[in-house]
Write a structure and sequence with these properties.
This protein is mostly helical. Helices cover 49% and strands 5% of the residues. It has one domain: Glycosyltransferase. Strand 8 and strand 9 form a beta hairpin. The N terminus is likely disordered. (2R)-2,3-dihydroxypropanoic acid binds next to loops.
Length: 446
């Protein structure tokens, strides 16, 4: 692996890409270097000291601009921990650390290295395609990617089959952490529908690193650990988990990210000449893309998560309501409604895009997924807006993100009104989001 101690400007000029001379980008590269471990990047050294599933490929996308070797290694390390079932776990505990709860002993998945037992939004195929497209030698990059594409095909199969055993086209998540928006207001009703059977307040470590008001409540933790215990009690068997889980929700974010990643996986398979694999993904893609329409809540006039156990939409509109654009799954009327929602959100905050609409009951501008602005989510929302020609809105997200980072550094999330930096510090995917954005702008201008 290429050493991370080489100054970024040297690497950038070595690869002929000079955008890294930008001051914010320099600082971003310093974050990625500091968080680099052997073969993977930790999201934040103290708060999240392991490899996280959807953080890692995003970091790899940023690395692709300056260090393709490390970009590949990041994804190879992630996919090396794939389960036989196809699941790619959401945390890989490469080295022990007592600064994080829940550790491997809570999951009891009996893997080496230890892993959690749930997944996270499957963004890796999209990131891998990007890495290949960025490569100066795309044939060699495609060759190197070939075994990873096989892993990704197995992972997408897992999502489409294990998380949608009825074959509806809508995949479900069995734990809020599978959405990547851990304590979103979206999960309040589904979580409050059952009583926790544990009290883990004294085991939590997150509040040693981050102010308690920016982190989830104790009763939330009791519930999410209850879900882990239940899944563990059925031996992490996919079907048994679907049948017994106290939480089963179709998330607009996961569904949209999967549909977009199917599109990218299909393109990779075609490039590799695997027509049978591409055909399979095409079937999944067209069914799941069409199914996004069923997440349109006509009454709310927005895409919303659907609680399968309760048989109804959740009563909140999140930033994921924009992501069907990213999936390319929206007709003209709904695209217009999304644009209106976006314009409304812009008037409700100074630094868009808040994780949930600020006029939603339960909105909290300082607390993790309950309101703050997340640069990474901004990046993919902007991608979708651009895809539908809403360039001005995409540009606003980019400039808000830039202002946030310039004001408050590379934090995990930010208050949408004051711009205060919140959550973990030295946050890798915030740095990565900015590097990708800066790199793309440079590319467009060159
Ligand atoms: C946490 O511990 O907050 C993580 O986000 C779970 O993935």
């Amino acid at each position: 692996m290429v050493s991370s101690s080489v100054p970024p400007a040297t690497r950038a000029s070595a690869s002929g890409r000079a955008y890294i001379n930008d001051e914010l980008a320099r600082k971003a590269w310093a974050v990625l270097s500091a968080n680099n471990r052997s073969g993977y990047t930790v999201p934040s050294p103290e708060l999240f000291p392991f490899q996280w599933n959807w953080d890692s490929p995003l970091v790899a996308m940023a690395l692709a601009h300056i260090d393709e070797e490390r970009a590949f290694v990041e994804i190879e390390t992630l996919l090396a921990s794939q389960w036989e079932s196809g699941l790619v776990p959401h945390i890989i505990y490469h080295v022990p650390s007592d600064g994080y709860f829940p550790g491997p002993e809570v999951w009891g998945t009996d893997r080496q290295p230890p892993t959690s037992g749930i997944s996270q939004p499957p963004i890796a195929a999209t990131c891998l395609r990007y890495i290949i497209e960025m490569s100066a030698d795309s044939d060699a990059a495609l060759k190197r990617a070939a075994p990873l594409v096989v892993n990704l095909l197995r992972w997408h199969r897992w999502w489409h089959e294990a998380r949608d055993p009825e074959g509806t086209g809508l995949v479900s998540i069995l734990h809020p952490w599978e959405s990547g928006r851990d304590n979103s207001v979206d999960w309040d009703e589904p979580l409050n529908a059952f009583e926790p059977v544990v009290d883990v307040s004294k085991l939590r470590k997150d509040r040693l690193h981050v102010d308690a008001k920016q982190r989830p409540s104790d009763v939330y933790y009791d519930r999410v650990i209850t879900l882990i215990q239940l899944a563990r009690s059925v031996g992490w068997n996919d079907l048994a988990m679907v049948q017994s889980s106290l939480f089963r929700v179709c998330d607009v974010g996961v569904q949209s990210i999967l549909v977009r990643a199917d599109e990218d996986l299909m393109a990779l398979l075609r490039l590799m000449g695997d027509q049978a694999g591409a055909k399979q993904v095409e079937c999944w893609h067209s069914k799941s893309r069409e199914a996004i329409d069923r997440l349109w809540d006509g009454e709310a006039g927005a895409y919303r998560a659907f609680d399968l156990r309760a048989g109804k939409f959740v009563p909140s509109t999140s930033a994921t309501a924009f992501l069907p654009l990213y999936a390319g799954a929206v007709d003209e009327t709904k695209a217009k409604a999304i644009k209106e929602l976006c314009d409304r959100a812009f008037t409700l905050c100074i630094f868009a895009m808040p994780q949930v609409m600020p006029d939603t009951p339960g909105y909290d501008p300082d607390n993790y997924s309950r309101g703050p602005t997340w640069p990474y989510l901004n990046r993919i929302i902007a991608d979708g807006l651009s895809r539908y020609g809403f360039r001005d809105s995409a540009d606003r997200l980019r400039s808000d993100t830039q202002r946030l980072i310039a004001r408050s550094g590379y934090r995990e999330y930010y208050n949408p009104t004051s711009g205060e930096g919140l959550g973990g510090d030295q946050f890798a995917w915030t740095a990565a989001a900015w590097l990708i954005w800066a790199g793309l702008v440079e590319k467009e201008q060159s």
